[in-house]
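Model it.
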Amino acid sequence: MNNKLHLILICSIAVLLTNPVYGQEELNKFERWVGNWSVKMEGNTIHESWIRNVDGSYSGESWTKKSNGDSVHTESIRIHMLNDNIYYEPIVKDQHGGEPTPFRLIISSSSEWMFSNPDNDFPKYILYKWIDENHLRASIGNSNSDSDHTIIFNYEKY
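Modeled.
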């Protein structure tokens, strides 16, 4: 009986120690986003720039360079772990009182990440899809139906 208790204790400790490692491995999948990305839309160029922070989280900045040459900062983004979940938290200018809007990671694979916040007005989901080393697609919308108002950003690395 003593050996069984000892084995259960060791297994329990092993599970507790490996859980954060799994989370960090999941967070590490965003390493490919690090760098500068842009997409041309309606005569403007939208830029996203991502870095990895010392604590293992990621920070992004988004701005639009208008056709007249003016640049407008549109959002700051953070991807981080909180309570064993990964969150994508944008702070969008003039929305939610300057507070971050949390979107929880609900789908993760080697090439696709979906974040969800069903309580947000728009968007309710943010989907990133890794195309290749130089292309990353971001989609935002309220549902997966074809009638949904979805905006697609086909980013290219520069």
